[in-house]
Design goal:
Strand content: 5-15%
CATH superfamily of the largest domain: HUPs
Helix content: 25-40%
Radius of gyration: 17 Å
CATH topology of the largest domain: Rossmann fold
Order of helices and strands: HHEHEHEHEHE
CATH architecture of the largest domain: 3-Layer(aba) Sandwich
Distance between the termini: 45 Å
Shape: globular
Low-confidence stretches: 1-30, 42-47, 189-193, 201-212
Largest sheet: 5 strands, parallel
Strand order of the largest sheet: 3-2-1-4-5
C-alpha cells in the first residue's frame, strides 16, 4: 500500500501549497485493501477541503427551513457560502439546490438560487429542486434531476450535524456521493480565508431576508 500512502501525501503537499490544510491521515500502521484505500481518499479529504470535479458531478446544496416571512436563516446562508466555495473549485459542475417547504410563496430552493445568482453564479448553472419536504425527498428528487441532466456523481453540502443522515439518504437513492463539505468542518477559521467572506454584499435593508 506504499503507493496509496505516497499518493495521499503528494496530494496533501500540493494542497498545502495553496494555503489549505489536509485532514488527518490514516495511521501509518493501517493497511487497508487497495479498493478501500482508493475509495477513502475522497472521504478522508473532502470533509475539510473543497474538491475539483468535472461537469458530470453536481454540487448539491441541501435546503434549510425558511422563516414564516420567507427569509433564509443563518444556517442556510452558511450552507450556501460553503457551496459557493465548492462551486469556485469546480467551475464546470452544475449546482443543485434542493428544498421545498415554501414560506410566503418562496421555496427553499428558490431562495437559495436567488442568493447564488446574487453571488455571481450563472443562473444557467443552477438546477432547482423545489418539491422536497424531507432529507429523503431531497435525495430522491435530486437523483431524478441528476439522471435527467446526465450527472453521475454528487458533492453534498449541508450542516455538520446533518451530513451523516444526508449521506445515508443519498446512498439509498442510488446517488454516488464523491465528497461532502460542511460549514464547520473546514480549515478556514485558522486561515486568513473565512467562509463569511463569500457571497453577495447586500444592502442593509436586505439583511433580514439574507441574514449573514
Amino acid at each position: 500500500m506504499v503507493w496509496v500512502t505516497r499518493a495521499k501525501r503528494g496530494l496533501c503537499a500540493a494542497l498545502t501549497t495553496t494555503g489549505l490544510v489536509c485532514a488527518a491521515m490514516q495511521s501509518a500502521g493501517a493497511q487497508p485493501s487497495v479498493p478501500v484505500a482508493v475509495r477513502d481518499v475522497h472521504r478522508v479529504l473532502t470533509p475539510t477541503l473543497p474538491g475539483t470535479y468535472g461537469d458530470d458531478t453536481a454540487v448539491v446544496i441541501l435546503g434549510y427551513g425558511l422563516t414564516p416571512e420567507g427569509a433564509m436563516r443563518k444556517e442556510l446562508v452558511r450552507r450556501l457560502q460553503t457551496g459557493f466555495v465548492q462551486s469556485v473549485f469546480a467551475p464546470s459542475s452544475p449546482i443543485v439546490v434542493t428544498g421545498g417547504n415554501p414560506r410566503a410563496g418562496t421555496s427553499e430552493a428558490d431562495a437559495m438560487a436567488e442568493w447564488l445568482v446574487s453571488a455571481g453564479i450563472d443562473p444557467a448553472r443552477i438546477l432547482r429542486e423545489t418539491r422536497a419536504e424531507s432529507t429523503v425527498a431531497n435525495a430522491r428528487n435530486t437523483a431524478a434531476l441528476m439522471d435527467e441532466h446526465n450527472l453521475r456523481t454528487a458533492v453534498l453540502i449541508t450542516s455538520d450535524d446533518h451530513v451523516r443522515r444526508a449521506r445515508a439518504a443519498f446512498d439509498a437513492a442510488g446517488v454516488e456521493v464523491v465528497g461532502e463539505l460542511t460549514p464547520g468542518a473546514t480549515p478556514w477559521p485558522v486561515l486568513p480565508l473565512r467562509i463569511e467572506q463569500f457571497g453577495p454584499v447586500l444592502p442593509t435593508d436586505q439583511f433580514a431576508r439574507h441574514p449573514l
